[in-house]
Specification:
alpha+beta; Helix Hairpins; Heat Shock Protein 90; eight-stranded mixed beta sheet; 47% helix
Amino acid sequence: MEPYEYGVFPMKDALELVLIFEQSGKILYANTEAEKNLEYQGNLCGRKISDIFPGAFKEEEGRVVTDYPFGREPHKLIAYRKNLTCFPVRARIIEAEGREGTYICMANVIVEEESLGREVIQRKQEAEQALKVKSEFVANVTHELRTPVNGILGHVRELSEKETDEAKLRTLQVIERCCGNMNRIINNILDFSKLEAGKFVLEPRRFHVRDMLDYVRSNHINKITEKGLDFFMTVSPQVPEYIVGDELRIVQILNNLLSNALKFTSVGKITLEVFKTAQVGGKVELFFIVIDSGIGIEEGDQGKLFQSFSQVDASISRKYGGTGLGLNICKQLVELMGGRIGMESQKDKGSVFSFSIWAQADGAQTEEDEDFGEETFVEGFPLSGLTLLDEAGDALKQYGTRENREALHKNLSKLILCVEMENWEKAEMFMDTIRGLCEGAPREVGRVVLRLKMAVQKENYEKTAAGVEELKTFLEFDEE
């Protein structure tokens, strides 16, 4: 009996199993693929469909009954061979057109698909277990590392209080700074492993927003001003006095962004701005912006910033240091607080990093908020509308301008003061600023700056002093 009699095309050589059966359950037709897979060797016709799919069909009063939904939508069934072994298929059963009480079953064998599915599940479980083991290992190692590092740090600070020899004191200060850097790296790795394992938990509490910002400012103001940079902080009056949030993690994000701004900025200024951008019921959205006039980032490299273990290029880590985890951790922390983080940058112009968080406002809404109703939005702070550098900033970087000469004189004075105090590390910091201010200078000025930098690196007082005086002579000549 051929299947075209039942309103379908001949399927003798079709790759899927084809069975045609009547309402009594008797099989009227089986194609070659069905005979081969079910191993009936040409004896399928006359058998019952319930012999093939006993889990889906059964006989009652001379007719086959099933809960299986007929139609074009495929469903998973278990097919039984003649020897009663079974295999999974994805089948659909339809009524033959023009033949009431006659049905066509078309099924695809999914043994390989099932096997691959089980393998995928197994691999996923293995990967999850490996990630768990790795996270626990990293957490244990970082905890173990903290003990000796903090032990060294404590002893170094104790020795520093008693030491009077300047050379030994400088060595102890270097060790203390190295221990601090090590602790920061350990903290980053520990936070990252917790975030990756999904075990990181925020700890919200009530705190004073402006006190928190003052604390952040006090952490960075000395380093920023020592580098010859200006620092500005602006807080909108609409920012609530108290909020309920994870103060420690907000401080961590701000510290990271300000540290990066300081690290990559040698000339100009750093700005921190805070606004309230939305209020919904008792929750407020706070928007933080960190602007610097540093080295900037090319547009093609900006996508790498928030990836783990990623930096713009290898020279960044060699020159400036860092693990490449900080911004990725910041991104995950911001998202945990219901916000988002982004950036804009121009190469050699500066960068703008911004992030938002949602927090519970502590206290009742103000009358101003109530005038807006339940939902309040403050307009006017789009990231794309921010100016990276104002005219004064551009003038500062342009060699020979009044602002540039004033900044050079200021930093040269600080450089020679550091040299006289034998603080060569800080002297190198001012030397980097001087190099940035002398970009675009005539070739002879560039040679003087290069000789001065080499003298500072070699900690040669005489050549450094001579280089400073020579550079000042060029500046005085330019003023004339």
